[in-house]
Write a structure and sequence with these properties.
Oligomer: single chain
Distance between the termini: 15 Å
Order of helices and strands: EHHEHHHEHEHE
Structural class: alpha/beta
Shape: elongated
Number of strands: 5
Radius of gyration: 18 Å
Amino acid sequence: MRIAAPGVLSIACSGRRAWNDCPVPIATRFSPAANASRRCHDAEPGTFYLTDFLARHFERMVIEPLKLDRHPELRDAYFGNYRRLVYLSQTADTALLQRAKSAAERLSLDFEHIHCGYGQLQANLELEIQRWDDDKEDARVLA
């Protein structure tokens, strides 16, 4: 059994098929957020993307590591070429939406929200697992 590198949707396939045999990149093939980010990038390359996870952990994942909490003057050095922040949400969480708006404000970027949901991710992953499970062995999805 092989597991993908951290940060990548991991699929563990038992039997004779291993991770290397799985089509790439599976997460982007089925994710509505991936399609939305491609469209946004084409429209405005200076776009900073925020997901539900990053909206929830913006301070710890963006502000603190870049030391913007202690040195706000660095904002232009890091984000000077960005024009907008696009929040690609999968959940309909008003608290996360407000956090995303606050993140855009903190970075002095225009805000845009695109609700992507999960689309057909689960159904398509189940079909892929069935396809891989041609020997009727168990397959597990690990996220």
